[in-house]
Design a protein that fits this description.
Helices cover about 20% and strands about 30% of the residues. The protein has 7 helices and 19 strands. The strands form 5 sheets. Strands 7, 10, 11, 12, 15, 16, 17, 18 and 19 form a 9-stranded mixed sheet that branches. A 4-stranded antiparallel sheet has the order 3-2-5-6, with no helix packed on it. Strands 1-4 form a two-stranded antiparallel ribbon. It is an alpha+beta fold. The chain has 3 domains: about 55 residues, RNA-binding S4 domain (Structural Genomics Hypothetical 15.5 Kd Protein In mrcA-pckA Intergenic Region, Chain A, Roll); about 90 residues, Pseudouridine synthase I, catalytic domain, N-terminal subdomain (Alpha-Beta Plaits), CATH 3.30.70.580; about 80 residues, Alpha-Beta Plaits. The two termini are about 15 Å apart.
């Protein structure tokens, strides 16, 4: 996922692999701590063949990261933006070394969660994957755990589920026009808690769906994207890299068409 050139300058490679600025990298090379195929690099402007050359930094093999893929358990009170203004952003939760650019590009957020919404957030440098997961035409399922202000009877739960499956018409809100949502799936846990799966991601879509049905969302948490579920051991505000198995679950092609 995501293609880059075969050859990259050594200083760019090291800077985009978490070894600091270009001046930091120059110091490492000057001190003889960087070798290419067992030989001290000597210069920072040499070009590295990513598929053939072996790089070591202070005796440790360099793990070349074209892209990074992070899972975060977003807490309430943080905005999904690189610029927060009045609020902290999810980027403030990252270690400085993890915020940096990689060979594949800048770190971006896969979809947005509202300020008061919690749960699964993916951050990646893989722009191609980001587009495929967020584009409505690919119908990637996103599932949310929802708490409602008013309990719903069994008969009402059935009506809600049928309305969601058919596609709820939501009115305009703020700067966004009204729309008819694509059909989704609603499963009830109790009279006022449920799990809603949607396939597009309109502005405040989950909240607007329940408002149109005559209720109000009091708590919202995204628990899965495609076949990837939020790690229950990941505390709010924490993040980590996806495993290979998790990345596969995120990108399974039966939903990414």
């Amino acid at each position: 996922m995501g293609k880059i050139e075969e050859k990259v300058r050594l200083d760019r490679l090291l800077a985009n692999s978490g070894y600091g600025s270009r001046s930091d990298v120059k110091a490492l090379v000057r001190d003889g701590l960087v070798t290419v195929n067992g030989v001290p690099a000597g210069r920072t402007d040499i070009h590295i063949n990513l598929s053939r050359d072996r790089i070591e930094v202070d005796g440790q093999p360099l793990k070349i990261a074209v892209h990074v893929y992070y899972m975060m358990n977003k807490p309430a009170g943080y905005v999904c933006s690189s610029k927060g203004g009045a609020h902290s952003t999810v980027f403030d939760l990252l270690e400085d070394a993890d915020k940096g650019k990689r060979l594949g590009g800048e770190l971006g957020i896969v979809g947005r969660l509202d300020l008061d919404t919690e749960g699964l957030l993916i951050l990646t440098t893989d722009g191609e994957l980001n587009h495929r997961l967020t584009s409505p035409k690919h119908r990637i399922p996103k599932t949310y755990f929802v708490k409602l202000e008013n309990a719903v009877s069994e008969a009402g739960q059935k009506q809600y589920a049928e309305a969601v499956a058919a596609g709820v018409e939501i009115p305009p809100e703020d700067h966004e026009p009204g729309a008819v949502c694509r059909g989704g799936k609603l499963e009830w846990d109790s009279g006022n808690t449920c799990r809603l799966t949607i396939y597009e991601g309109l502005y405040h879509e989950v909240k607007r769906i329940f408002a149109a049905l005559g209720n109000r969302v009091t708590f919202l948490k995204r628990i899965s994207i495609n076949h990837l579920s939020l790690d229950p051991a990941l505390a709010p505000g924490s993040y980590r890299e996806l495993t290979e198995q998790e990345l596969s679950a995120l990108t399974l092609t039966n939903h990414i068409l």
